[in-house]
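Example with several molecule types.
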Amino acid sequence: MLELAILGFLKEGPAHGYELRTKVAALTGHVRPVADGTLYPAIKRMAGAGWITRRDEPGAAAAPRRVLYLAEAGERELERRLRDPDPLDLSDENRWFTLLAFLRHLDDPAAQAGVLRRRLAFLEQPASFFYDGDRPMRAEEFGDPFRQGLLSIARATSRAELAWLHATIDSLDRAAGP
Amino acid sequence: MLELAILGFLKEGPAHGYELRTKVAALTGHVRPVADGTLYPAIKRMAGAGWITRRDEPGAAAAPRRVLYLAEAGERELERRLRDPDPLDLSDENRWFTLLAFLRHLDDPAAQAGVLRRRLAFLEQPASFFYDGDRPMRAEEFGDPFRQGLLSIARATSRAELAWLHATIDSLDRAAGP
DNA sequence: CATCGATACATCGGAGCCGAGGTATCTCGG
DNA sequence: CCGAGATACCTCGGCTCCGATGTATCGATG
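Resulting structure tokens for the full complex:
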């Protein structure tokens, strides 16, 4: 998830680590702030894989900045991850939203629509949160307000996203169509 | 997150591992299915910590079942985790929803309201997903539909939860109040 | 009566992530 | 001119998690 965010932001221009830290924190931080001990090892890892290149930037800043650029292998990796997402990227909200934030870098409406359709298929499979033996429970059945709230919030979220998915898939299809 | 779910479900009665697997998958599976390689080590870990006890159940099932019971230390651990949640449990959606599912086991409306208030405080801090340098961007500004969708879905979710939080805190306060 | 699928439990390697800590420089207020 | 705070980078230990793989039994299907 972090790696995708780094690839996506670097696609929009070079940045140094601390700058990425701010951007990633803004994007995913409303849910889970990124720790330095997560970010910098990720950068190192990705540089080792050849996805990004580092150049030392002299002067200017307080501490020596190491500017990060997306390498060609990194572009390919980003494209690959967007076009054919890991199953977890489609089911886990955090990962999915991260993917969504960079889906615009996939320069192909048909492929974009394909990704949205896969998320749609996931969202449309009926989910019951609680069971009484084999029987799925309905919200009205559990007396406590917490599980009722849980269900109603989850449903509101789901409705909002489903509506958006349908509308966006339609418009992408029109853009890709004959 | 998994441990909290296991503690919570066992609070509602004993179960064997495979049964837990189903319940946990129903609760968190809409987002992130649980793998056997995650569940069984967690059970082992928690048995080692003295939170749950295992008894072999003879006969009946195909394979030998090991029934799990919540031990006293486990009850205390559950109470502790609900009453004073880890910061990550308040920010990460997955973790938060799991916590919410078992908040009813905290037998104290004032404490429950306290937990909701902490989530409220987190949700109320303004979140901007994207920045143009230092300046937070508004949804209308980024042309691509994906980030617009991301923002509108996130806001719909946030609105739904905020409304529920306020209403529920009020009613808990009335229940706890004089 | 043999095979397949579901039930049920378990282990292993590898990976990402968190939290805490550490280093160094620059700027600004007192 | 001194110290506090922001900037900027990095490492380490420990934990949880994933995915693959393995074992064994029961019931139903053909």
